[in-house]
Specification:
The chain is α+β, with helices and mostly antiparallel strands. 34% of the residues lie in helices and 15% in strands. InterPro entries: Endo/exonu/phosph_ase_sf, INPP5E, IPPc.
Amino acid sequence: MTSEDATTSCKNTNVALKIAARDPEGDLSLYQPRPPTQPRWPKTSKKGSVERTVRTRRLRNSQEKDLTLETHERSLSAFMTGSQVFRTRDNSLSDYERGRHSQQSSPKDHRVKSSKLRLSPLQPTGPLPALEMSFESANLRAANRIDRDCLDYALLANKKGKLHRNLSDSRLLGNMGSDSASVSSMKSTYSVLSPIKPKDVRNRSFLEGSLLGTGALLGAEELDRYFPDRSVGVYVATWNMQGEKALPTNLDDLLLPADCEVAQDFYIIGVQEGCPDRREWEIRLQETLGPHYILLYGASHGVLYLTVFVRRDFIWFCSEAEHATVTTRIISQIKTKGALGIAFTFFGTSFLFITSHFTSGDAKVYERILDYNKIVEALNLPKGLPDANPFHSRPSDVTTRFDQIFWFGDFNFRLSKARVDVDAIISGIMGEDMGPLFEHDQLSNVMKDGSIFEGFQEAPIHFLPTYKFDIGCDIYDSTSKQRTPSYTDRILFKSRYVEDIKVIKYTSCSNIKTSDHRPVIGVFQVKIKPGRDDIPLCAGKFDRGLYLEGIRRRITRELKMREAMKNQSSSTICTVS
């Protein structure tokens, strides 16, 4: 820079300072630099208007101080305008930025706006890190909606965002976020009922529907909406109650084990030698499962009880349920031996659940095979429901007429070994390997021969024999009969298509000791397929009286527990030494 340029720059600076001191409100836009355009607050933004209002009030309250500050800023701005460095920076702006600045800026705007320097925003040097999929971000389906009946909001607040573990849909826990903000967002934004277009109203029919039709209640579109993976959770429990009148005080261990993360969509409970009061038994089941489930169907055959509970959200997709019975011991006045089956269709998949009680006795294997053959031939199902596969079903085998079959109960097959030998094997078992016991299992041997339960499978057993115990303890039969411990209580399954049934859990319930049998439970993941709307639908029918009584007892029990805890916390204990 030459001496003449330096002299000129100093003169310009002095002139700017004089003008600023003489006319603070003058137009100095010519001496101001043009920084990158700053983002403006939207017209509808309340935040921007509030900030500008506060800034204006502060300027009004301190005029003298702001006047001095503004004069200094204008002088500094004029100096920077004449500097080569700032001229270079202004020239480096893109045409787009200068164009936007020229369109949005005016001399009048500069009188109002502060002339503070603002640096241009920094751009990231590399790609931003990927966000973790910690909560649901797209396409929340109706099955994932939350209402007050499915979520304990008080517990949610206390646990700071952890979801209530009583939710029964595994997809909900797997896909939904675990923070309270996501829950609140879904609560306020999404509705259980989605809007229906007039076109859909014209085309949709709940009486007749196509398998692939977009308007079918049981079609593929509705199935994928509720079950994206096209599978449901099925919980099966079987228990020989030995006819005891006194029921366990708590059935949570039977239906809601502590090691199960989520509840299932269907609960099927089969009982042999059930308690005298079947209604009381069903009420206790409803009380345990709570308001999330309703009794789809219940039936009995003597002292054989079979109940089907379904998650109440899914009752609209169930057909009418049917049942049939078979007696294998005709001489007996009380029907203790035989079978009871319940059948229904869910979407396009037909289910058959059979609970049975075969002939007892260590050596009566042949009689038990006869019981099985009689049941598969005489069980008259389905009745009004359509046959799932009429071209492959056989009149002599009821299990060929359904897609998914579960057969469970007290089959009475024993271990063909002396009591002393079995006790020695049990005492020598390490871990969960029950292979040495199954070498003598009668049921496993006859199934390998193909003489019984054709096409059925059983999950690997990793629990001790469930029969026969002394009441109230874990000691096997200590009476004079010294019955051999055996796996009499079993759950078998059969599917029309390979690998449609996946075993999640198969174990016994050792905490319930009111009978000489231990209950056996199985958890399964079952594939389902779309169907047609021409089947006789359940139409939301369920046992309302049973439901209300079970919920009333549940509430009463909770109130009593809270009162007891309150009294215990308020009581004082005095000791005299």
